[in-house]
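Model: Ready when you are.
Researcher: Fold this.
Model:
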Amino acid sequence: MKIRIEDKLPSGERISITIEGGKIDEQRVLQILEMLNLMTGKYNESSSSEPISASRPSQLKDVIWDAIMVHFGDGTWFTSKDLKDILKRYYGIDVKLNSLATYLLRFYQTGYLDRKGSRAGRIYRVRSSPSQSML
């Protein structure tokens, strides 16, 4: 597998980073993207109205929770597919749906999320208070 990341510094210098290997760690890619964001002074190339902080978390769990809070923190119900699309569009991360489902289950079990629906049509939302009963 080979991943190439290119960007341009405000001074006009061009940066090109290539990562090669049999299995490329997502955390490594996130670290490189964070480094590029710091060097270029950018938060995110997307047209998001809410910029991602330059000190964004480097663990996938933290990135997923950050995306949930930024995009669905107002209590909006969402699916794992909605979250996958947000992560791809705004964070440049392509996470498998079954991996997202595992993280969402953990957030639900620890009381951070509410959920309802059957396995195929499950939806989630940020829990408004820790004392609220599970659905």
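Researcher: Now this one.
Model:
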Amino acid sequence: MARVRSHPAVALLVAGVLTLGLAACADATDPPRSPAPSASDTPPASPSPTPSETAADGVEGWTVTPDGIGPFQIGMRYVDALTAHDVTVAETCTGVASVDTGGSDVDMWLVATGQDPQGTVSEITVSVMADTAAEHAGTGPLTDTGIGLGSSVKELEAAYPDARELDDTQAPNRSMYYVQSDTGGGLIFTTASGADVIWSISVTTGETPVYEPCA
């Protein structure tokens, strides 16, 4: 009986085919691996929001601007002003609300346009008793020029050279000084008639603050 001899070249060829087949099977079953993310692939963290003035600051720490006082802004919806901030706000009559100033003797209130509770805030006022106003000098709330309750008319005029005294205050025994703003409203600083110390500050879209709105 004749014997078949294996040729070395044939054996090598068969071995190579088997090796390629096994490699192909391995490639078909092993899922591809995702590359590890680099530092540049990681999205940047969102910037921390800048905190606004809150009840924690206290009314003395709030700022008076032509747009509002502290967290309360001219043009915000009146109903939102009643609940939008961490401050107790209570409606005292239709369209007029008193702001709890946390034990301070500074009074603060908001008035809706036309005293319509469905409207927007058109006036924000802070005040103290006229005969004790001088005791509040420099304690706030203050404008960015440092004028506040207890400031003198002389200080007001130095800080706001364009301040003008109103001819008609629509309120008895009061003098008022008006500072026009670029936004259309204005700041009104009130003293007792002929006196020198500011005891009330209003941010308003009107010509004068509303006189005794709940009377």
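Researcher: Key takeaway?
Model: Residues 59-204 form one domain.
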